[in-house]
Amino acid sequence: MDIKLNNLNKTIIKCKKCPRLVKFIKKVSTEKRKQNIDEIYWGKPVPGFGNFKSKLAIIGLAPAAHGGTRTGRAFTGDRSGDFLFKCLHEVGISNSPISKDINDNLNLKSTYITNILKCVPPEDKPLSDEISNCSNFFNKEISSLKKLKVIVPLGKVAFDNCIKQYKQKFSIKKKFIFKHGKTYLLPNGLIILSSYHPSPRNVNTKLISYKMMVNLFKKAKKLAKF
User: Which domains does the chain have, with CATH numbers?
Assistant: First the structure.
């Protein structure tokens, strides 16, 4: 990771701009979940991870209460992450099909993973001002990835908020429809490749399958050319 991105992540970790989220993180990290009762929770905003030379960025909405908020790394330690990394390993993006904690030696090939919101919101429903507060961090992350070619937002909410950032940046009036596997070319040359979120609910209801997700990331690698 380069110095600029490393310093940004340090700033993200120290952020306390949203009192409601700070309070909720403290509650989650103190009360904990039964199966994690003996663990020390990360309990801070969760920065992105990966190489600053990444050509692909995978974007979630926010860290999970007992996933990233517990482990300190996005999509790490929760069922959505379990499914995601199994798929990423299958296509050669991750060196491991398992993502448990920040010290598990997991590495990504030319890929950066982050969330639009760096803190978990109550009921996974962020307020507009909270997303606005975090948008500066998200924009700086993306602009720090100089070789970035493809962005994969996971889920409609992440997709909508990601598109919103670029609509504001480029004054785009075009309508973007969320559809799994749909690609959009942005004015700066970046490609948005939308995907269903790998949540247990979506997997169990067969909205998303292992094969669908693997095929989507094969497409992402091809578009990003790595």
Answer: 3-224 (3.40.470.10)
Tell me phi and psi for residue 152, to 5 degrees.
-115, 100
Q: What is the pLDDT of residues 182-203, one digit of tens each?
A: 999 999 999 999 999 999 999 9
Under a CB-based contact definition with an 8 Å cutoff, are residues 46 and 63 in contact?
yes
**Residue 1 — very low, low, confident or very high, per pLDDT cuts 50/70/90?**
low
Pairing of strands 150-153, 191-193: parallel
0.90 surpassed by pTM:
yes
Nearest Cα to Cα of residue 193 among 154, 165, 225: 154
In angstroms, the CA 110 to CA 221 distance is 9
Assess contact for 72 and 46: CB atoms under 8 A: yes
Residue 49: what are its φ and ψ, rounded to 5°?
Answer: -145, 155
